[in-house]
Every structure is written in structure tokens, then in C-alpha cells.
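Weekly modeling sync, notes
Attendees: S.R. (lead), two postdocs, one rotation student

Agenda item 3: backlog of single-chain predictions. S.R. asked that every request posted to the team notebook include the full sequence so nobody has to chase files. The rotation student volunteered to paste the first one in as an example of the format we agreed on. Action items at the bottom.

Example entry:
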Amino acid sequence: LNACGDFCWLPVKIDRERTDVSKYYKQLCIFADMFSEIFIEHGEVTFDDLCLMSTAIEGSTSKDWNIRREDIIFKRDWIRISANCAVVFSRSKIDFAIFKNALEIDVLDIEWFRLWYYESGDNLLTDDAVNLLIEKDITHQGHTLEDTNARTSRNVELATIALRHANYDSIKWLTKLSWDYALGYIHHKDMTINDTLEAIEYLADRDLDKAVKLLERVTPLVFNVCEFTDGDHTRFALSDIARISAKYNISGIASKYNQEVNDGEWYQADTSLEYFLQYTDLSSTFAKALSFTGLTNDQLKIISSRAGDGDLSAQDIIDELNHSGIDISIDENKKEDIVKDESKLNPADYLPSQFDILLVCRPSKEFYLKWYDFWLTRGEESELVTHLYTILLKEKLDEENSKYLLDPLFLSCRNIFGSRRAFNVLVKAQVEMQGWSSWYETSEASLDRLKKVAKHYPSRVNEFLSKTTTLIEPWSKEFGDLIIPNKTLVYLLAEAKRVDEANLLALSMICEIEKETYNLPLVQPNWSWGVGESADQQSAKILVSRLAWPVPKIKFQVASQIASLLCDKTHAVNLERLLLVELEKKSLESEVVEILVVFWLAKQKGYETKENIAFYIKARSRLSDMILDGTLSKIDSYGDYAKELIPDFNGYINDFGFQNAQGTEIPLAFHSKLQDLEEETGIPFLILYRSEWINSCERIKPRWDNLDYFLSRDRKSTGHFFTRNSHRGRSAFLNVLNIAENVFGMPRDYSESVSTLAFPIEPVYVSSIQNKPVWLPEWEFGQNVSESNIRKYLGNCITNYNEVLDLGALSFPLKIDSDNWIDITIVLAKKTNQSDVDFNILRGDIGFSFGDKLKTDLQFMTKLGSYSKYDNCYPLFGTIYPCTRIGYWQIDLESRGLYIPFTDEQVSAKYNAFKTSFVLDEKQIAESTFWSSVNSLSHPRKIKSLFGTCTFFNNNNINAWLENGLQDKPYIYLCSVSALTRENHYDDFNIDEYNFTIDLT
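Predicted structure, as returned to the notebook:
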């Protein structure tokens, strides 16, 4: 057991190339020592013990794929070694309890184990353990597999394992499951589902109640479509059901959006919102509020398009958005030009009686239609019918493009010969255009023809069907020449007022898909199917759901809009009730806090809640208690804790991504604060923090949100996001404080102060986001981002400024185009002597801010940082670091910075109407505002934030806070500019830094 030595003398296999694998033999020696220690202590070594040893393997940091591959091979081989050793030493199979423990402590990769066990052919597991393997692997498939062929293969492997253990029930079930996945892979059901949804839409025009019932039934198939088929059109099914719900005012659109937001399906949620905006009544107060919650460019274009169509409510919204700084133009929607015929033929050269001569020329479709219209407008309709009827209605057309004349010929024939004789033309048109198929003409053309059948020949629909459902030229003798119509037949029956038959046909389409997916575990989405809800109610539900959108600035925009709507008594929507329903669903402390903040914001605007909010709180924290104290005039209770407050000091092997989330999805401020508390008290708060993070998995399913959707194609961009893991991290922090207060006796006042770190907003910024200043000039230099042009632009900024107060600081991003950006900062300063000025403006270089719990003011401690650089000048304004409150909803504002007066005097900041005011001795000496400068969710990394800010001051009372020695010094503006340029969107940005001064004359 204590053998030692080197293994480098072992012969190298050619197929393993030149990778040194001796370390893996050394690792086996280490495992042997560990094995002996466990055996001596416990008298046995089980399979889970051996699997646990694999955690001692240090993962390779090498970028060499050959080395990383050997690491993977060794870890996979260790599963085989562990299983065989466990069976040999215990002289029994691996039982259910041991196998379950290996899975629960997360030291066994279920995929690697299944594949090895399948290939080995050995029966080393008990029957109960095999059942557990099958159950866990099926669950794992839903999280990791996308391709249905991979699901088919995996379930065949599981069926083979079940066969070895004579588990015939599992064999039967897994075989059926594999077959359903095989059907999904071979026959792309996405097209069938799309056709079914279109059929339901056709029915909805005639009987909405029947259509809604069909939609509800088909929902599990649509919701799970990506689980059982790999077709290219899978994503269209979900968007189609969103479109239908929005079009017919079905409540499913709001509940669908809610589920997609909560599930992290950002693309689908945005698609649902796009369709909602396309069809909803934009005169609704709530729809208007929704328009000011950070909509995407595509969503804004929908509103713009409606404005172009003459929608006055959309025009009003566009005007207000433009006024706020979001530039959107209204383009009148023009019909696309009809494809022009480029033929050199002249219609006048071919009389209707010369149609047979025209056929020989074999003109294009466009010329045929042009020729027909030419003679029709000249009063030759009778001649056209006389000469074309016999030629075009013969059994087979000699010239293919001539078939495009059949539809206009029907109208003429009906005018000349009457409806009875014109019927044959419709039949011929349907046959020649293969109208029952979706491949040969547009669906609009097919449906228009069928509408004519239903309108003019309702009693001859069956005759029309019998004459048009036979192929002209069967493409397969095996399948015959019969055409089986699908969605378009539903349309024809519905238009002919044979609604019951249309409903049965659409239902049969659903039933056929259900038969082929009978064995699949299809999840039923939680969508509602009411009809006729008001536009206000629908918009309000979506607005409340949007509070969970993973973008901090959108969360704040949504919360602000809802708070204002709560104070608005002109609408009939019970918005408070919608918020409370959502609050009751929340199982994490952080989620509860976010909804309570909406009520807190409304309270600042004068709103009084009508119900007992605490009754709906299922994840209480000290922070939620504080918000209730600041929101309710009378408090009976504070709600319920999510779980019993018992310290958990277990050292879990798997941290479920806790360490990876620090500093990315969770602020390091929480970790640092708990570390300080641990050093002060000796209580292991950091272990508790980690344990609470892990335990949160029991309350809500862990999810690593895919944020690439928001970053679009530019992977070099960044942005601020708030994910489910962000909620878990903040909730863990708040739960640690719950335990600290209730178990370890932390004083309530101290617990409140620490809890403030997790408050989503900075109260001072509540009303400071305003419209973009009108005096900011446009960039007039195109892509020529040179220092001289930047100097001219900044000079124009200062020259254009025409407000009552003086400009103290200005900082904002300027997006010229996607490849050219500028980040600008201008700070007023005093020049202290005649020497050259040298400076470097940095974030937080003049001090710190302190907020007392949830009070709506800030105190400052100002002092130039040791890292600051202001040679021969003295800045009059600068930014500070927040110490006690980090409003993560307003992190974009914090990243840009609050520029405060730089003075030794005790200045405080308070939120005021539409601004943040700076007060000295109860007198306002300056004020600051923010605005959204660029409408985007991502930006280049060097850009501080997409928000801009400016600080104004009253020069008449500057001596009240400016040092005496500086009062007579000349003013200058310190200008710090970062210019980002690149040739192509895939290139890295070239970054040029410019520091210069502008003298005030």
C-alpha cells in the first residue's frame, strides 16, 4: 500500500501520441492509500466512497486538447475501476442506497456511468439501482439533450440495460419512447403542428370558442415541440400560438409571456411581446406604460409601423419616446411594387382571338397577367372569355404559365356566362395551381380561391373537393393519385359555415400527432385561455411579468411605471391584486423584495395599499420587514420565512456554482461583508452563505441563464444583467442575516443596516432619470473620430448649454455607429497655477457615499483618493463609491457616476422632483440628472454605461462650499475622452484616450 516510484518507464502507445500519462498511475497509488485508510476506519469500501475519491483529481489547466482528453479518459476509466473494485471487495452488487448516494453527492457523471454500464454487459447493479439509473437518466435527458436522434439512441441503451435485468415494464416503456423519438426525427412534426395551428386560426374567424378549446388541447404539443422533433420550423410553433392568442385577444398571450420570462426563455418572451404589441389597443394606459420599459428595436419598430398605418395612439407613443431621447422615425407603410414584366412583348400585338399565337411565345407569368389586364381595361372581357375558356379548360395545358390566367378568368366568366359555368374555371385553377399544397403558390392565393368557392358555391363544396383532390401526374404509384387536404380544407369548411366539420377536421389533426407522441413526457404549460379580457388587463399582466426581466434598468423602468399606475385612479384594473398574486408565488427572499419595492416606490408617490401585503409573503427577510415598515401605515405581521431558521454548517462537496457566481452574477460586496462579520464574531458566516446558496436549490430550480441573446452577435460587448443565480445569491445573503438575527442574536438595527446592501434601488436616484438634454449637439463628423473633431464637439456641448444653472459636470456615451463609440466626461475645475495641467478622471476618486437604511438621502465623505491625479488643477465635481447601498436596479447609473460638489463641507443628496439635489445647510447648491443616451442592452466594454449624466450648480453661492484659496482661480473644463473605433464588427476596438482642457472665456 505504500509503494512508490515513477511510471515514466512504461511503454508509450502510438495511439496515445506523446502525452505523458504517468501522473495517472501516480494518482492510482494515491487512491490506493485513500482506499486503505477508509478500509481501516470503516471495515469496508463502497462504490460511493470510491467515486468520492475522484474529487481529489486536479483538473488540468492546459490548453492542449491531448492533455485534457487524457484527463477525461482517466475519470471515465475510474468509474469502471470503482464499480469493479466495489463489487469485488463487498462480494455483492451495488445496491440502491449506495448508488443513490453517489448521485446525490454529485461525484458520479450519470452519462459516463450509463454508457460504461451499457457497453460492459455486466450486471453489477441491483434491480432497484437499475431502476434508479433509468429514472435519473430520463430526467437528465430533459436538461442536456436537444437532438431527438440522441434521445432515441440513449433510450435504446437504457432498454438494453433493462433487458439484462429482466425489467420488462421498463423495456416496453423505453422501446415505445424510443420509437416516438424516432418518429419525431424521421417525420418532422413541426410542419404538421404549424399546419394544425393555422387550421385552428382559420376556425377562429368563425367560432372562437371552438378554436380556443383546440388551442388548449394542442398546447402541450406546441410547448414541447423541440423535445420530440428536430425540424427547422420548431420555433415557429410557439410564435404562431402567441400570434393567434394576441390576434384574438386570448389571455394565453399574457400567461405565456409570464411563463417564458420565469423560465428564462428570453427569445420566446420577446416574440410573444412583439405579437402583443402588434395587435393590442395602444390607447390603453398600460400599453403606453409598457412602451417605456426598454423595448427592443424590433418591438419599437412594430409601434412605429402602426403609427405609419395611421394609428394615432402609436403616433403619440412615438412622439413621447422621441422626446425622451429614443430616436424612432415613422415611415408610411407602402405596398410593395408588383414584380414588373421585363419581356419585350407588347400586349397590343396579341388580340384575345390570337391567344393561341401568344401561347407559342411562352411568355412569363407577369406578361400573361399584364396582357389580360390590358384587354380587360379596354372592354374586351367577353372576347377574353370566349377565346380563353375552351383553351384553358382542356384536360392538359400546353403552356405552363398560362395557368395563372385561370383565377382572373373566373371573375370574367362569372360576369359573362354566370356562376354555374364559372365553377369549372375555379376547379381547373385549383387543380393546375395545386392549391391544396403549400409549395406551388402563396397561401393568400389559395385561400382567396377557396373563399370564392365558399361564397358563391356553398352547396357545391363537396363537388369541388371531389374534382380537385386528384393529382394531375402522380409522383408515386405506391401512394396513388389522391390528395388529402389539411389546413386549407378547414378554411374552406369554416368559410362555407360548416363549422362543426371544420372543428372535427382540426381535432383529427391534433389527435394524429397525439398518437405519435403518446409515450412522451409532455409538460402541460400553465397558460390561461380566457377570451375577451380588456387591453388594460392584458397589458397590466405583461407589465407585472416584465418585472422579472433579467436587465436591471428594465426592472427599474417597469417598477416606476407600475408605481405610477398604482397612483392613477382613472383605470379599472386592480393592479395591486396582480402584484400580490405574483408575490405569493415567490419562493426566494430576493424575489419578494423586488415586488415589495414597487409598493415602496408607489408609497413615495402617495399610494396607500388596500390589502395586507404581509399575508402574501412566503420568503420573509429583515429587508422585506424594513420595506413593509416604510410602506404600510399599519402592520399586523411580516409574512412567513421560507424555511426554518437553522444554521447549516455542512461542507457540501458540490457548491452548485457558488464560487463561479461570485463577482459575476452576485456582487462581491455580500461576500466581503460576511467575511468582515465572521472576523468580528467568529461565527462562520461564509460557510452559512455557501450552504444557503446550495439549499436554495430545494426552493427553486437552479438555472444558468443564457445571456448571449442580449449580447447579440457582438461577443465583445458587455452589459448589466440580473439572473436567477443573482436572486439565489441575494436570497442566501438575506437568509444568513435571518439566521444571524434569530439564532445568533445579531441586533435588529445592525441587521437592518447590513440588509440594506441588497436593496434593489438607491432612493436618491428614484426620480433622477429624465429626457435627454435638448442642448446636446449631434455628431457632425461621420466616422472621422479624430482628436480635433472631438475637441470641436465638446466645445459645441459647452457652447450649446443654455440652462439657468451653470454646468459642473457632464458625462455620457456617444454612439456614432456600431463600430465607432465615444465615452465623454467633462468636469469643471479650478486651475491652481500657470503650469501645465495633468489629470486622470477616475470613478470614485473623491470619496464615498453612505445611506442610512432606506432613508431617501445620502451623506458623503469627500477626499481625493491616493490613486487620483490632478496636477496643477482642482476638480470641483467628482464621483464617489457607494458603501452602504448598492442599487443594482440602477447599476447603470452607478457605473456612469453621480458627480457631486467636491468640498470639505457636509453636503448631502436628496431625491427631488425630477432630479437629485445637493444640499448644504438646508440650501440647494447643485442638482444632478441622468438620461438614457443609447437604446441598447449591451455596449463595448470600455464604455462606462449607456446612461448620461450632468450636474448643474448655482455659481452665485459657490463660495459657500468652495475653499477660499480657490475662489479667485480661473475656471477650466477637464475633458477625458475614450474613442473606440474598428474597421469591422468582428474586429477588436482600437481605443484612444484623450485628456485635454477647455478654458472658459
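Discussion: group reviewed the output briefly. The longest strand covers residues 806-817.
Action items: rotation student to repeat for the remaining queue; S.R. to check formatting next week.
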